[in-house]
Amino acid sequence: MADMMWAGRFSKQVDETVNAFNSSIAFDGRMYRHDIKGSIAHAEMLGKQGIIPAEDSVKIIEGLEEILADIDSGRLELDPAAEDIHMFVEAELTRRLGDVGKRLHTARSRNDQVAVDLRLYLRDEIKQISDMTAELIKTIISIAKEHTETIMPGYTHLQRAQPITLAHHLMAYVWMLLRDMDRLSDTSHRMNECPLGCGALAGTTYNTDRELTAGLLGFRAPMRNSLDGVSDRDYCVELCCALSLLMTHLSRFSEEIILWCSWEFKFVELDDAFATGSSIMPQKKNPDVTELIRGKTGRVNGDLVTLLTMMKGLPLAYNKDMQEDKEAIFDAVDNVKLCVKTFTPMLRTMRVLKDNMRNAAARGFINATDCADYLVKKGMPFRDAYKITGTLVAQCIGKGLTLETLPLSDYKAMSELFDNDVYDAISLETCVRERRSQGGPAPENVLGQIAAAESALSFYE
Q: Is the pTM of this model over 0.70?
């Protein structure tokens, strides 16, 4: 076995099982572009500051660019025996350039190197997830625009409660997802400080220019404290928290789609391309996509708990425990991207069964509040109106009627305030149309919501 880059202090080789246990290249290899990008910035700074000869800086940068091109093209494969991506790149550079390559690690440590790699990597991933979430929001808005007058029951306690529209229901998820995008943006802003130059924990005695490397890498500033720079993983926890909330919103939406696909609801039908069948029951059409999203939400939540538990007892500065951060946050990122990527076209191809929604809204006395409001608007105190309407509902249930089919004589027996106009007041269309209070389901209100959401979304474009 070849000597490790850090060999010198040790009198014998590391046990092979320990080396395998210690290795992280199997998962941190995905950061090779970001590792090389950070190294190029570091090499440029070393040359400009005269810490290494300018010609060596140029050769190192050229060598790193060639390694990047070779990995991208497949000419150079990552060595699974390497300890990590940082050591792999440095070893390959040294193999190609000899002593010149050995100068690259001057004035830095793997501690600040991995910290900058991870920030660069997650900054790119946040942008991708944000873009994918924006596409999902656009898809939901597109469906909502078609259904501003598609009446359906709104629910509390999973019981039919009041009439709303499908557009109104969908827009609730739009606002959730817009908050998710805000959280991703906030995380990206807070993590956009550069730890490169913090060294192992106490900076360096070399005349480095951390402002230069921060600027070259697109960070708004260097991190101010070298201990914090190498030991901070707040951004991993914060990002995973934002991703857990995003997945929670997808999971809630998935649960509703699962219900809506069932024969008990039959509000929507998924395209065959986004459903599966049964190995034994030929009639089945299962919403596996939504069920998997629901399950993967628990997995992402588990990643968050892993990060919090890993960090809670660590003294400053770097500890090997922190190697566990990458598998957890990478898993969360990968699963969120997979779920959003699949959820969007599933929604886009979903068929809405408007008549079934309307028929469900016609049952369940979801216009009872409007019946009580009818009396209130004629001068009756709300609590009295509430009791009378509840009694009328009980009468309807006993007679197998609805409030729309209950004879006027039965209404008048409860209050002389009732007249023929009660039937218009309690029609589902009126119930929805008259809910013009801000945030309500009246079509013009929902169109206003859509315009506001599109305006908010344009901020991210």
A: yes
Query: What ranges do the domains of the chain cover?
Result: 16-106, 116-206+230-359, 368-426
Please state, in angstroms and rounded to a whole number, the distance separating the CA atoms of residues 232 and 222: 13
User: What confidence tens digit (pLDDT) does each residue in 302-321 have?
Assistant: 999 999 999 999 999 999 99
Mean pLDDT over the full length of the chain: 94
3-state secondary structure of 228: helix
Are 361 and 353 contacting, i.e. CB atoms less than 8 angstroms apart?
no
Closest CA to 198 of 85, 113, 105: 113
pLDDT for 283:
81
287, burial (CB in 10 Å: exposed 0-12, middle 13-18, buried 19+): buried
The string of pLDDT tens digits covering residues 73-109 is 999 999 999 999 999 999 999 999 999 999 999 999 9
Residue with tokens 């040359």: 47
Question: Measured between alpha carbons, how far is 91 from 56 in angstroms, rounded to an integer?
Answer: 16
pLDDT (tens digit per residue) in 112-168: 999 999 999 999 999 999 999 999 999 999 999 999 999 999 999 999 999 999 999
- List alpha helices for 146-209, DSSP H: 166-191
Instruction: Please state which CATH class domain 368-426 belongs to.
Output: mainly alpha
Domain 116-206+230-359 coded CATH 1.20.200.10: yes
Instruction: Count the neighbouring beta carbons within 10 Å of the beta carbon of residue 314.
Output: 14
Q: What is the pLDDT of residues 263-302, one digit of tens each?
A: 999 999 999 999 888 778 878 789 999 999 999 999 999 9
CA–CA dist 198, 223 (Å, integer): 8
Cα angle, residue 333 at apex, residues 330 and 335 outer, rounded to 5°: 105
Chain Cα centroid distance, residue 314? 27
Which token pair is 231?
A: 């030991």
Backbone phi, then psi, for 334, in 5-degree steps?
Answer: -60, -45
Number of other CB atoms surrounding residue 219 within 10 Å: 23
Res 175 pLDDT > 90: yes
> Are the beta carbons of 268 and 351 closer than 8 angstroms?
yes
Nearest to 267 by CA among 184, 194, 351: 351
Q: Which residues belong to the active site?
A: 157, 278
234: how many CB neighbours lie within 10 A of its CB?
14
C-alpha 225/C-alpha 182 separation (Å) is 27
Residue 2: pLDDT over 80: no
| Second-level CATH architecture of 16-106 | Orthogonal Bundle (1.10)
